[in-house]
Write a structure and sequence with these properties.
The protein is α/β, with parallel strands linked by helices. Helices cover about 40% and strands about 10% of the residues. It has one domain: NADP-dependent oxidoreductase domain (TIM Barrel), CATH 3.20.20. The protein contains eleven helices and eight strands.
Amino acid sequence: MNAKRVLLGCGNFGGVGSAPAFFGRGTTEDDARAIMDVAWNRDIHWFDTADAYGGGRSESYIGRWRADRGRDPVLTTKVYNSVTGDPDDHGLTRERIRRSVTGSLERLGIDRIDLYLAHSRDVDTPLAETVAAFQELQDEGTIGAWGLSNHDAAAVREALEHGTPALIQNAYSILDRDDEADLLPLCAEHGIDYVPFGPLAGGWLAGRYRRGQAYPEGSRMTMRPEGYLRLANERTFDGLDRLEAAANERGVDMAALAFAWVLSHPDVAGAVCGPTRPAHLEPVLVALDIELTAEERERIGSFFP
C-alpha cells in the first residue's frame, strides 16, 4: 500500500467550505459522524478542517465526535475567514490569530492543535507578523506546527525569511497543475510537506459531470462553482473520456485513478479527500494500492493538454 497520507477533508461538514451563504447546510452532523466513523475504521486518522467551515460547525462536529467516540485523530485546522460570516472579520494579524485559535480549541475540545494553517494570504498583514504569531503559539505548546494554504511560491519564499512552514496545502490535480513548476520543487528543497486539497477538482475527475448533461443537484457545480467554471469546455470533457478509458483498463473508478495520479508525484506527501458520504471514501482507499510509473503518470497528465 502507498505510504503517503490521506487526510479526511471536513470542509462540507455543516456548510460548503467557508461560504457564509451555506452555513448550516452541507453535510449534516449525523452524516458527518458516519463519514468520520468509516474513515477512522479504514485507518484515515488525520482530519482536516478550518474554523470557518460551516460557520464553526465542522470543528464542532469533530469535537463532539471525538468526545463521544474517544478518538484522537491528528487535527489540522485553519484561520483567516470569518466564523460568523462578518465580511470585516478576516485576516492574519497576531491579535486575530490568537482570538481565532481560542475558538478552534474550544470547538474541537482540545488544548493543542497538531497543525495550524493560514487559510489564505492576507495582503494587509505582513507575513512576518503572521509567522511570528504562529511561532509564538508553537513555543507555548498551543499548536504543534504551522503551515500555509492557498499561498503561491512567492509567498512561501517570503515566509521562509521568517520561519519554515511544516506543510503547504494548495489545490492540485490533473486539472490544476500550477504548483508543479515552482512550488513543489521549493517544498522539496526546504523539506516542507506538500499535501494538496482538491485532487478530484470538485468532482470533475470523479466523473460527476457529463457532457451535455445538467449538473447533479447538490454538487459543487450547483452550489459553489466559481473555482471550476473554467473547466466546462470540450477540452475537459475530451480529457475525461480518456481518463475514464484508462481507469476502465485498470478496473478502477476514475476517482481512484485521479487520486492515485496526485499521490504519484514524488514531492507530494499526501492529499485531502472531501467525501460527502461514506461511499466516497472507497475510491480513495483503492487509490492507495495503485502504483503509477513515471511514464504512466506522464501519459495520464497528457489527457488534458
